[in-house]
Amino acid sequence: MCLFSEQTLVEGQRCAVHQPTTGLCQLFECRDRTMHRVTNTDCPQLTCADSDQITLTDRCCKVCRGHDFCAEENICAENSACVNLDGGASCSCKNGFRPLREDSAYCEGEPSITRGSADPLLQNTCDICMRIRCGK
């Protein structure tokens, strides 16, 4: 973890510092508990109107509103799902799992089994679990 401009960042997380007066941007990445400057790359040509371009906190290049951040990279582990937001992607633990860290990228637990399931195998499994937990 790194501390940068009063923010706590996890390993691999990036933060962009935009200079509104000059239009310049510097990108930093948390690696080995230290913030490192990242070399800027050329930004891709955008196909949306200027009014639909948004500036983000984790990169120097703008993106179009409605951008699919989940398609860029898989930031969520197997028990969490990627959710697109206006300014990036976030992870959400799948049903029956709980987060292991604040960003919900890693989740633990067992998927929920609902009593009264139409599947007899699931119903029996649930009944066995209830007897063990409740001592029935």
TrEMBL record:
Residues 66-108 form the EGF-like domain. It comes from Labeo rohita. PROSITE patterns: EGF_3. This is Protein kinase C-binding protein NELL2. The keyword Cytoplasm does not apply. One of its GO terms (molecular function) is kinase activity. InterPro entries: EGF (IPR000742), PKC-binding_NELL (IPR051586). Keywords: EGF-like domain, Glycoprotein, Kinase, Transferase. The keyword Glycoprotein applies.
